[in-house]
Hints:
It comes from Artemisia annua. This protein is an alpha+beta fold.
Amino acid sequence: MIAPYVGTEEWITSLDLPIERVWDPWYIGIQIAGYQMTYAKNGYSLTYATVKAKIITLKSQAISIDTYYSDHFETLAS
């Protein structure tokens, strides 16, 4: 699946948020699962993340990256 990102990046730029962390990889085990950039202002933060679209192995179980992604970022938002 391909998702457009230019509009998202333009929207984030329009928010005029300072960058807190420049592109950092995020991992599942030792594999890079995607990249993320964090913006922050006045105690609030926004994380913009990319996701590699493939099946990976984690602890001997095949899981889809989108399942891990949703679980990982829902936990961060809590």
